[in-house]
Amino acid sequence: GQQLNQSPQSMFIQEGEDVSMNCTSSSIFNTWLWYKQEPGEGPVLLIALYKAGELTSNGRLTAQFGITRKDSFLNISASIPSDVGIYFCAGQPNSGYALNFGKGTSLLVTP
Amino acid sequence: DAGVIQSPRHEVTEMGQEVTLRCKPISGHDYLFWYRQTMMRGLELLIYFNNNVPIDDSGMPEDRFSAKMPNASFSTLKIQPSEPRDSAVYFCASSLARGKGDYGYTFGSGTRLTVV
Question: CA-to-CA distance for A66 and A68, rounded, in angstroms?
């Protein structure tokens, strides 16, 4: 499947800081999603985006579907220690139903 | 709902042995996916089913891998014979069809496979 380019690969921040990560693709996607994975568990859906330009929030998390349909970003405001984990972007291409995943952004938050 | 249930959580086996991973999707979900996760390659789609029918198995590494979905509530991923390079975390996920509700997979907790 189409590989998504996710950056940064890792982030090490202090509690209270804001975080921004993004994902790009050379292909158009119909849907963008953001997941969080904690150790020993499967990824958990955070936000789903269905339309180009859409901006959606879930608590301290905000994500946007790029107008070109080839990118998306996720912001976390006022980070807390429990935000620690790996964040994955995922996109559904025009053809097929399966999601393609980015390599993930590993987030570490120090108190 | 108990979510997507995978078993076993951990599996250690010797090279050459047969391994069977099991998955129970969320009741009513139309799609079931098998993914493999490694540090080097991230999350890779192996195969997915729609209404118990395999739709795309192009991600299955080779003939040693096979997957079945005999009914809407059960799927297996089998590796025979297993090799050390198969060591990874295998995830099962399920989802509704677009237009039937919230899209987005629900993942199980995964099976960590170690082949020695």
Answer: 5
Please give the pLDDT value at position B101: 63
Searching chain A, which residue's CA lies closest to the CA of residue B99? Answer: A50
CB atoms within 10 A of CB B11: 19
d(C-alpha B9, C-alpha A2), whole Å: 29
Residues of A with Cβ-Cβ distance to B111 under 8 angstroms:
none
Q: What is the DSSP letter of A81?
A: G
Question: How does pLDDT run across A61-109, given as a tens digit for each residue?
Answer: 999 999 999 999 999 999 999 999 999 999 988 777 788 999 999 999 9
Q: Judge: B45–A42 Cβ closer than 8 Å, yes or no.
A: no
Task: Give the mean model confidence (pLDDT) for residues B24-44.
Answer: 94
Tokens standing for residue B71: 């009914």
Q: Do A97 and B102 touch (CB under 8 A)?
A: no
Summarised one tens digit per residue, pLDDT across range A7-52 is 999 999 999 999 999 999 998 998 999 999 999 999 999 999 999 9
B93 in contact with chain A, both atoms CB, cutoff 8 A: yes
How far is the first Cα of chain A from the last one, in angstroms, to the nearest whole number? 38
Please say whether the beta carbons of B90 and B111 come within 8 A. yes
Chain B CB within 8 Å of residue A2 CB: no
Residues of A in contact with B46 (CB under 8 A): none
Question: Three-state DSSP class for A4?
Answer: coil
Token reading at B50: 């729609």
Place of tokens 């890779």: B44
